[in-house]
């Protein structure tokens, strides 16, 4: 793969290889706040029809059951799908995590999971939680394990205690919060970076720089942002329940940003979080 990452992002079916050899789709669907029932079922079916193969849920989202149902009804072979879920803060600790995993798997109705993440770095608990994830990984119940919302100091602490290092760190990441230092640290340690809220929930789609670049490529600002993620070797998992938006989000594989455009987008960074700061979580 080249520096810009263009080689692995020419199709929605392209994958990124994690450090343990598992291949993960380079692009996926997040289902935070998508309600169980018809909306979830329709969203996942539309996404799968469009070629999405990575579905990212969490026990906290309270829709694992619906995700499992939708993928079973899809007719797509299980091995072609990549399913992620996460252990929530109140479920952390060694024994609690093992139980939480069983509960998630029961709700999902799956025999194995592709990726299991520690949802937030809960102080005094995440090391024991990680030990449980290592156990599940050794048993082959999950193909890869990782973390979410970990800052560099959390990762350093984890790496100094862990037998297995995380394959991925899923964090809030978008042009207003580009997390350059964290990305560099992850790259040095063979940890892939995945972006939740990759479009920052549409908060800066009116940005003139993005509008200009989008017009040059005949694309939308949202498509330009998603392409920026891919070219920085970040795995974006945009959430949408609108069929037209789900389709728009996939139409990012037929153009590339040049160096000047990438730098202009990089210049938008304000270290601005819209989600919680992982050092100050009280949930």
From TrEMBL:
Entry GO MF terms: oxidoreductase activity, acting on the CH-OH group of donors, NAD or NADP as acceptor
Domain NADP-dependent oxidoreductase residue range list: 38-269
Residues engaged in binding substrate: 119
Alphabetical list of SUPFAM superfamilies matching this protein: NAD(P)-linked oxidoreductase (SSF51430)
InterPro entries noted in UniProt: AKR, Aldo/ket_reductase_CS, NAD(P)_OxRdtase_dom_sf, NADP_OxRdtase_dom
Site keyed Lowers pKa of active site Tyr: positions: 86
Entries under Pfam families matching the protein: Aldo_ket_red
Catalytic site positions: 61
UniProt keywords, alphabetically: NADP, Oxidoreductase
Keyword Ligase: no
Similarity-based family: Belongs to the aldo/keto reductase family.
PANTHER family from the UniProt entry: 2,5-DIKETO-D-GLUCONIC ACID REDUCTASE, NADP-DEPENDENT OXIDOREDUCTASE DOMAIN-CONTAINING PROTEIN
Name the record gives this protein: Oxidoreductase of aldo/keto reductase family, subgroup 1
